[in-house]
Amino acid sequence: QVHLVESGGGLVQAGDSLRLSCAASGRTISTADMGWFRQAPGKEREFVAAISRSAPITYYADSVKGRLTISRDNAKNTVYLQMNSLKPEDTAVYYCAAKYRSTWLQSDYAYWGQGTQVTVSS
Question: For position 106, what pLDDT does the model report?
Answer without folding.
Answer: 87
